[in-house]
Specification:
CATH topology of the largest domain: Rossmann fold
Strand order of the largest sheet: 8-11-12-7-13-14-15-16
GO molecular function: nucleotide binding; oxidoreductase activity
Keywords: NAD, Oxidoreductase
Organism: Arthrobacter nitrophenolicus
Distance between the termini: 28 Å
CATH class of the largest domain: Alpha Beta
Low-confidence stretches: 357-465
Protein name: Dehydrogenase
Shape: globular
Radius of gyration: 22 Å
Pfam families: GFO_IDH_MocA (PF01408), GFO_IDH_MocA_C3 (PF22725)
Length: about 475
């Protein structure tokens, strides 16, 4: 099992979440795809960086994120900064041959996103964007039911993400309300999660029609650099302009003919982290509410008339990711677990890169993820899987969105290896790499069985979008 040296840039809310996931992933999913080493963390100044390193368990700290890029010992650059820094850091990391994890939204604009994609697309680097809510076991279970045909052909999707942390006009003007830093408001901050779920569960969009509104045009200027997320009030001091959206409502037509809607706002009093979707099909319906994230409500048309209605399935060991989580259904899945799962699903390709690190000089850039023949992993054959996607729950392959080289054999291999479907969001490019496990000598029947078991446990790559 290989170590992966992580350089984390950003020690705020998301820095805490990512640090937790790095520390806890091997505790939940063992044998772990790889062992993350919290090597160095970067913050805005030396005091903040030193404090973050002590708090989050990093070996070193720095106030210059470029030193992480230049460090030959760092394998993975994790970007957990405000949005305006994503593109510069990611492009620099790609040019240095580093693997990249980037928080959502990927960038402020489609142009920035494309530049990030162009920087990595030909380098065979592992790269992903962090959409953790799709990793909630109940959401993955919904995907499983859909791919099994349990609700038939999908007719409609209705999704929401409602919060109230900025409903008070005296909530301070954090960077999330400034277009030059955030790029957008509720659309990029929270609607992207629901858009990701819609594409994950239903499919690609063919048309959208949206309305964006800004309800509070000015807010008190924030004191200090930390993003308070509505936990403090700005009082009667100077105020600054809000130039992003507070609310977005979108109608959707999917490429497969289904219709849908997405609504997101940070001005809904009484709603805390209300992420929901309701999906109707020709043979049933599925309902999910993240505030009750251990539960998935289902109704199947095949139920007898006197028993038809929504029932609640409580996720546990029998459901997606259950073998690595808690031993009793409804024991409790939290935000931290979704981040742990997210890291686990992206770690196998990073493991392959780390295995390569054993035989490459420390200053060698990463031209390929293909493992050496002496690796304990099976040797890759390195075929591209186009943009066809297979869910980690073992469902059928989704047809490619454009011609590619994926085959039925590829799809079966991907199912066997629990490949998660890709992360996706509006106006952002995507790339998917697929590795296939070849056959290797096992030495004995028992060793072969263990090797096969490990191969099937390790999740596959999902791409930067």
């Amino acid at each position: 099992m290989q170590n992966l040296n992580v350089g984390l840039i950003g020690g705020g809310f998301m820095g805490k979440a990512h640090s937790l996931a790095y520390a806890a992933m091997p505790m939940f999913f063992w044998p772990a795809p790889a062992l993350p080493v919290r090597k160095v963390i970067a913050e805005a100044n030396e005091d903040l960086a030193s404090e973050a390193a002590r708090r989050f368990g990093f070996e070193k700290s720095t106030s210059d994120w470029r030193s992480i890029i230049d460090d030959p010992d760092i394998h993975v650059v994790d970007i957990a900064t405000p949005n305006h820094l994503h593109a510069e850091i990611a492009i620099a990391a790609a040019e240095a041959g580093k693997h990249i994890i980037c928080e959502k939204p990927l960038a402020r604009t489609g142009e920035e996103s494309k530049a990030m994609y162009d920087a990595v697309k030909d380098k065979n680097l592992v790269h992903m964007v962090a959409f953790n809510y799709r990793r909630t076991p109940a959401v993955a279970l919904a995907k499983k039911y859909i791919e099994e045909g349990a609700i038939g052909r999908i007719l409609s999707f209705r999704g929401t993400y409602l919060q109230d942390w900025s409903a008070d006009p005296n909530s301070p003007l954090s960077w999330r309300f400034q277009k030059s830093i955030a790029g957008s408001g509720a659309l990029g901050d929270i609607a992207t999660h629901v858009i990701d779920m819609a594409r994950y569960l239903v499919g690609e969009f063919s048309a959208v029609n949206a309305v964006l509104s800004t309800w509070i045009p000015e807010r008190p200027l924030q004191s200090g650099g930390a993003d308070a997320l509505g936990t403090v009030r700005g009082g009667e001091g100077p105020r600054g302009q809000v130039d992003v959206d507070d609310e977005v409502m979108t109608m959707i037509r999917f490429a497969n003919g289904a219709v849908g809607s997405v609504e997101a706002t940070r001005n809904a009093y009484g709603r805390n982290n209300y992420i929901t979707f309701e999906i109707h099909g020709t043979e049933g319906s599925i309902v999910f509410n993240y505030e009750r994230r251990d539960e998935l409500q289902v109704c199947f048309a095949s139920d007898p008339g006197d028993r038809r209605g929504f029932r609640t399935v409580y996720t546990g060991p029998a459901h997606p990711y259950g073998d690595g989580l808690w031993p009793i259904p409804a024991l409790g899945i939290g935000y931290g677990e979704t981040k742990i799962i997210e890291l686990t699903t992206s770690s196998r390709p990073l493991q392959k890169a780390a295995v390569s690190a054993r035989v490459l000089p420390t200053d060698t850039r990463w031209p390929s993820l293909t493992t050496q023949s002496s690796s304990p992993l099976r040797r890759n054959r390195g075929s591209r899987f186009s943009r066809s996607t297979v869910d980690q729950t073992g469902g059928a392959a989704v047809p490619p969105l454009r011609p590619g080289t994926g085959t039925a054999e590829d799809a079966q291999i991907a199912r066997d290896n629990c490949q998660p479907r890709r992360s996706a969001s509006l106006a952002n490019a995507s790339v998917y790499r697929k590795t296939r496990a070849g056959s290797g000598a096992s030495g004995s029947t028992r060793q072969a069985a263990v090797s096969e078991q490990k191969r099937r446990r390790m999740p596959r790559i999902h791409g930067l979008r």
